[in-house]
Target: 4Fe-4S ferredoxin, iron-sulfur binding protein
Amino acid sequence: MALLITNECINCDVCEPECPNQAIFLGAEIYQINPDKCTECVGHFDEPQCVQVCPVNCIPVDPAHVEDRETLFKKFQRLQAQAKAPATPGVSS
Ligand code: SF4
Ligand code: SF4
Model:
């Protein structure tokens, strides 16, 4: 599952630099998680790093993005491949 930041977030900025996938970003009002990038830290750590550091426990699993560990690991592999790939291919003319 990807995780979700609830509106209890106090914008403390602690979680964003801890995410190994750069999935956390500051939204219009509070921090948010991009479910396409969140692997629940699978592939990097045993536990979700954002949950470990959040002082107000406002990062539950996102019921709209239920994924098993194998799916999360495939997402991790895809993100790794994208990170290693050269710049975004341009549109050929
Ligand atoms: S669980 Fe891990 S990958 Fe997902 S947002 Fe938190 S730190 Fe990032
Ligand atoms: S650690 Fe928790 S309270 Fe702090 S910015 Fe992240 S989600 Fe919000």
User: Anything to note?
Assistant: The helical segments are 49-53, 69-84. The mean pLDDT is 92. The chain has one domain: 16-83. Residues 2 and 35 are 5 Å apart (CA to CA).
